[in-house]
Amino acid sequence: MADDVRERILVRLGEIVATMPSIKQVFRNYVDLTEDQLPAATVLDGDEETEDRTDATQRPPNRPTLAHMTPEIIIFKLAPQVGPDISTLRSELIKLVLYDTELNQQIVKTGRYGNGTIRYLGCQTDLGWERSMFGALKANFLIKYTLRPDDL
Amino acid sequence: MAIDYSALLYDPIYAELGVPATMIVQGTAGEVELTVIDDTRSKMQASAGVDVRSVGPGAFARIPELTAKGIARQLYQGAVLTFNGRNWTVRSYEIRGSPNGEDLGEVRFFLMAVEFQ
User: Fold this and answer.
1) How many helices (H) and strands (E) in chain A?
2) Which of A80, A124, A134 sits opposite B52 (nearest CB)?
3) Which of A110, A142, B55, B107 has the most crowded CB, counting CB atoms within 10 A?
4) Nearest CA in chain B to A125
5) What is the pLDDT of residues B29-88, one digit of tens each?
6) Widest distance between CA atoms in chain A
7) How many whole angstroms separate alpha carbon B117 and alpha carbon B12?
8) Which of A31, A78, A130 sits opposite B49 (nearest CB)?
């Protein structure tokens, strides 16, 4: 039975974001929102890379290898004062992801995939005007894990 | 002799498209009645590859009408403008000018929601 660790991580990220009390809806890879759905968050899958580009050994191609993915979580909000609101959401999000037991221990760190880690890489913000002040915050994470082709 | 654009252009347009509005200016008592043209448009904000659709609320008003009712330019921002059943705060504005001079032209108010969920 397929057990894609990358997909498990992405599903878990969506579940984590859904626990944020002030987020009304959570989407994944959905890029067309309306104001009625805000405050909302979107989990974007992001890229995945391995270091195998420089691996010229004759090890079997299906051997486990270290991979890292860089999912992005974007939070959107309309509010008269989006600055403090976005800061609060950022704090909640970072803590939830970095402290999540399932993500940290079962999937990435001490689970069967091993050698994993989670890093918060930073964030970018965006502002604008719609019906009210619009604020967006994109948080970037790096998650490292062992990719086992046999599990795909 | 210069063409009177207020009489020939703006008055007929506001008579046709204008809607009644009230404006409450900060620091003054009472509300002022005037005519505005609802210029609320759809607006989309693109952030990090995600589009968020909303509206950009706005309204046109004639500067001579505002001036005649005691609303000078420095009083625009922060005023509460009510029309078409909604309340807005003027967050900014732009002078639209006129062939007869900016004081005889229009102003476009950039609005934001007063009540927000």
Assistant:
1) 3, 6
2) A134
3) B107
4) B47
5) 789 999 999 999 999 999 888 999 999 999 999 999 999 999 999 999 999 999 999 999
6) 60
7) 38
8) A31
